[in-house]
Amino acid sequence: MSDLAPHEGRDPVVRVENLEKGFRRRDGSTVPAIDGVSFDVGPGDFLVLLGPSGCGKTTLLRSIAGLETPDTGAISFDGRPQFAGDRQINVAPEKRGVSMVFQSYALWPHMTAFSNVAYPLESRRSGKRNKTEIATRVRETLALVGIGELEQQYVAQMSGGQQQRVALARALVSNDSLVLFDEPLSNVDAKVREQLRIELLALQRDLGFAAIFVTHDQDEAMQLGTRIAVLQEGRLAQLASPLEVYTRPANRYVAQFVGTMNESLGTVTAIKGETAEVDTGIGTLTGRLNGDSIAVGDRVAAMWRPESGTMTNTDPVAANRLRGTLKASMFVGAYTEQVVDVAGQDLRVQVPGPNVLDTGADVWVEVPEVDLLVMPVEDT
Ligand SMILES: Nc1ncnc2c1ncn2[C@@H]1O[C@H](COP(=O)(O)OP(=O)(O)OP(=O)(O)O)[C@@H](O)[C@H]1O
Residue limits of the ABC transporter domain (predicted)? Predict the structure, then answer.
């Protein structure tokens, strides 16, 4: 899959073309960590690379930073080649003019916040700035990420959240047009993580840099990304807006990985226009075709999201009525997550407010046709 598009006459901030990178295993086999990936990142884009462990996110990000050398393909920044396999071009990381924030912070613990943040300016562009200019810029940046008062504190004496703010300041201090993030929020607790996400988005919008952000956390991807690239064994399974990835997943792998899906496997018994009827172990389900070339007799997955279903104790009239027993009810605050046993399969339904039915009650689950996706099963 490719996502190269013209950007109104100007070069994209990042262009990745047909990138490939394999790692040799001890047994002599090769793992294709990046397998023919192409995409553009425009000015101000926030691209999230999402996927499970081992799908190639970090290798792709490190290749863009210049910390990993791809086998073939090309990477350019603003039209300037950084890597070109066929032309032996491979610009050194420190010459690429990008900043990176790591999961491990990668700070010097026995140096102050100020010294850590000043480092890129002193090492990379010392010729252009004098000491006073550097100090002003460092202080501005520390204030920007909310730790102006900690400038003389040693990093080793800071909380995880404060250290990650120092790492963020160090990435922003050079004012690069591209900042790369490798799971930067996974070592801080849930509340701090949430706060840092909000601040990061505001900073990115205000400063206007393009971001590429690696995560395996689909909530984080949905919250941060202007676009999400879902990776599957080194390939791009889908690259689209969070809304599109959620409502029109490109395949079953994406549907299963992003958000929660109820899934019943079955066989197509009829197709009418964009709608298919599927014979499943829990009854006949009707939904939207989500995939090319699905035919009668094909093995498919009927999938729908917990918030698309409704649960009642009276027989509904519409299609996709499923009779079951309320197995569990979990009040989560904004909604109640219901688990309904339908012919031995646990289905999840989210209903607003608290539950009014007793566990063990006979219930009906109803799913609108438009919210049920019929997907091929052979492509995962
Ligand atoms: N230095 C290496 N030597 C050999 N194999 C490697 C090396 N680095 C990565 N791999 C392999 O390449 C594949 C992609 O790894 P990568 O770290 O990019 O995945 P990831 O999606 O970032 O995973 P995680 O979320 O766990 O960091 C995996 O199969 C991994 O085992």
Answer: 14-258
